[in-house]
């Protein structure tokens, strides 16, 4: 795929000397969903602000659709839609007027058919004559997305789009994002909900202390860094893990009713067959076994912890 956002050595140093971005380099392909993960203060919002023209980078360069974000500010910004964290909407204005006004800010002519299509896509058409103050938090976030899409951008930045939204509405928003991707929009998503990135992202970028730790395809990342866990439910509890099983580093849980075994799928063998044979040799009966893959959250926490150490 073609690269639509290119970032090279981007730095941002504030007047007090704080370096929010430390030479960030990143490429984003057209039509993908990239999840940008990082703890509070990692530089996520600063990076988005720099790309969207809200803050000026100290050094480095970046382009959107081939337009430099500093030299060619206007055409670069025209290609970008931004959905900020904060819900800043005129409470007494109607939904449809709010969206039309945002389109006008980009010098675009009135296009009622486009506005209707966007509002229908976001399940807002029935609310088009409602005042913003009458909407739920989830609907207000949809209005923010509609505002960001009304000038037909090719790149959409979603900064914590489901913050404060309940689980059901969050999943609805995931579907909205997927629909936007299907329509050809490139999406860069920052989120504190790791399951959100796991559910909808194509690639994962992890940022911490203003530096990109990795950028990788989600499936490849989970396959490369994910570990698997085997849970062994015993027919009868054990007071301690038998000494003969010490090589397996088994974890005793639930008062000895179950054992946990961690293994790496990248190794030559998992050791599970030998473990089960060793359990039988010790006279330990099995009631059930279950495997699970490390989640993206566990991988993310591990990466950030390593970077902090």
TrEMBL record:
GO terms for molecular function: ATP binding; ATP hydrolysis activity. Pfam families: ABC_tran. SMART domains: AAA. Residues 5-234 form the ABC transporter domain. Keywords: ATP-binding, Nucleotide-binding, Transport. InterPro entries: AAA+_ATPase, ABC_transporter-like_ATP-bd, ABC_transporter-like_CS, ABC_transporter_ATP-binding, P-loop_NTPase. This is ABC-2 type transport system ATP-binding protein.
């Amino acid at each position: 795929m073609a690269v639509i956002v290119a970032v090279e050595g981007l730095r941002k140093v504030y007047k007090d000397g704080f370096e929010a971005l430390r030479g960030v380099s990143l490429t984003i392909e057209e039509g993908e969903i990239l999840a940008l993960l990082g703890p509070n203060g990692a530089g996520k919002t600063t990076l988005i602000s720099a790309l969207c023209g809200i803050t000026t980078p100290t050094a480095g360069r970046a382009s959107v659709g081939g337009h430099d974000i500093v030299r060619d500010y206007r055409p670069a910004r025209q290609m970008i839609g931004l959905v900020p964290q904060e819900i800043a909407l005129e409470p007494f204005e109607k939904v449809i007027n709010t969206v039309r006004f945002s389109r006008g800010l980009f010098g675009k002519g009135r296009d009622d058919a486009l506005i209707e299509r966007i509002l229908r896509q976001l399940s807002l058409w029935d609310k088009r004559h409602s005042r913003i103050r009458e909407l739920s938090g989830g609907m207000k976030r949809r209005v923010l997305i509609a505002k960001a899409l009304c000038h037909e951008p090719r790149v959409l930045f979603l900064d914590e789009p489901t913050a404060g939204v309940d689980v059901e509405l969050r999943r609805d928003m995931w579907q909205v994002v997927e629909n936007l991707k299907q329509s050809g929009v490139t999406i860069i998503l920052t989120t504190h909900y790791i399951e959100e990135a796991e559910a909808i992202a194509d690639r994962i970028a992890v940022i911490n202390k203003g530096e990109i730790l990795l950028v990788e395809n989600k499936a490849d990342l989970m396959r490369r860094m994910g570990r698997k866990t085997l849970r062994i439910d015993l027919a009868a509890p054990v007071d301690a893990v038998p000494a003969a099983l010490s090589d397996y580093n088994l974890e005793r849980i639930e008062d000895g009713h179950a054992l946990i075994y961690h293994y790496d799928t990248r190794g030559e063998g998992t050791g599970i067959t030998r473990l089960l044979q060793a359990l039988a040799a010790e006279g330990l009966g099995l009631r059930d076994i279950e495997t699970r893959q490390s989640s993206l959250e566990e991988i993310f926490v591990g990466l950030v912890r390593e970077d902090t150490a």
